[in-house]
Write a structure and sequence with these properties.
The chain is mainly alpha-helical. The protein is 49% helix and 8% strand. It has two domains: 40 residues; 147 residues, no CATH class. The chain contains eight helices and five strands; from the N terminus they run ααββααβαααββα. The longest helix has 33 residues.
Length: 191
């Protein structure tokens, strides 16, 4: 029995070093060489200022920017996750109604307008930076008005949404989407 215990402890030590130290270092090194931007979080640096990551949504509580999906964690990466409220939960129902009415009011839409679900429900991680192109286009009038855009500039907003629209990966994984963070960065370039 003592012999088996010693063998087990040696295997534990070997596997810990092999799989807990050596393997992660190799994978990290390969990722840094092959995909340095992605390995470092797809960070966006503009004029020496870190603006954010392409992979994480940011709260935009302003009229001059596109608003992202709601987040159960207010885009905090440490406790990322969903609210875990079920579809029959009254609190979730009230939050969705409130989000819908707020979106309709902020964007001056008709009360019977169909609002895409990505504007009403948070993603599973609470960090998703994407919305549907339809949800983005519903915000164009508000942004154009808030920024005093001309009709030509407003048309450029629609073109910008179309240009930044991503298709499903490999044609089947995910859905058509627009990265709100990247869209807002490009929006700031329009003058």
């Amino acid at each position: 029995m003592k012999k088996q215990l010693i063998i087990s402890l040696k295997m534990l030590g070997l596997m810990t070093i092999l799989l807990g130290v050596i393997y992660p270092l190799i994978i990290t090194g390969v990722a840094q060489l092959a995909f340095p931007s992605k390995a470092n979080g797809s960070l966006i640096d503009i004029d020496g200022t870190l603006r954010g990551s392409k992979l994480i949504g940011q709260n935009m509580d302003t009229t001059i920017y596109f608003t992202p999906r709601p987040s159960a964690t207010k885009y905090n990466t440490l406790p990322s996750g969903a609210s875990n409220l079920g579809l029959t939960n009254r609190k979730l129902h009230n939050m969705v109604i409130d989000r819908k009415l707020t979106f309709i009011r902020n964007n001056k839409l008709a009360l019977d307008t169909h609002i895409p679900s990505d504007v009403l429900f948070a993603s599973a991680s609470g960090l998703d930076p994407h919305i549907s192109p339809i949800a983005a286009k519903m915000q164009v009038e508000r942004i154009a008005y808030a920024r005093n855009f001309t009709e030509k500039q407003k048309d450029l907003l629609n073109v910008l949404i179309d240009e930044l629209t991503e298709t499903p990966q490999f044609g089947v994984l995910g859905c058509t989407r627009v990265n709100v963070f990247m869209l807002n960065l490009e929006l700031d370039k329009l003058r």
